[in-house]
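Work through this protein:
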Amino acid sequence: MLLDQVRLGPYLNFSYLVSEREGGEAMVIDPSYGVEPLLEAIDARSAKVRYVLNTHSHKDHIAGNAEVVERTGAKVVAHRNVPFRPDVQVDEGSVIESGGLRVEVQFTPGHTEDSVLYLFHGHVATGDTLFVGECGRTDLPGGDPSKMYDSLLGRVVRLDDALVVLPGHDYGVSPTSTIGREKRENYTLQPRTREEFLRFLAE
């Protein structure tokens, strides 16, 4: 597998190109504003992009969808709760496959009602559910602190420590991390009761 992490747009978004090999089947995750560098990466890999995977529906994570689809003919994949009509709707446990690529979906609401993780080949694309050293906001429309508690402390902390974390923004001390490192160092993942977590977020 080949992985290109491309920083795009004014909000330090990370978009990803996941390819099985040079010239092989590929998927794009969260194409953001100013998508041209991502399109250049697609061309450089001679990648056959079959799917555009959105971790959630905030504009900065879907802004480049149309341009990638126009260039590649890919199908857009998103959770069934998104406020638009993707080509492929997914939910907890869904699997997307293309060539040698296999992506599993976990539903992790909290930042939005349509937030998901994409797990593939030792990596997890976390969108705005989990950043390096932080978690996504819950005070925007569709955010829910109690659901974020379930997603982080009921879901994320149970993932394999070795998984490489691919966040939705370049907000941390490094562009990637691992689940194990985040469990040790990310203060939002430290053990708390639901009530403690809700107080912590409110602060």
Summary: The chain has a mean pLDDT of 98. The chain has one domain: 2-202. The first helix runs from residue 36 to 45. Residues 8 and 201 are 28 Å apart (CA to CA).
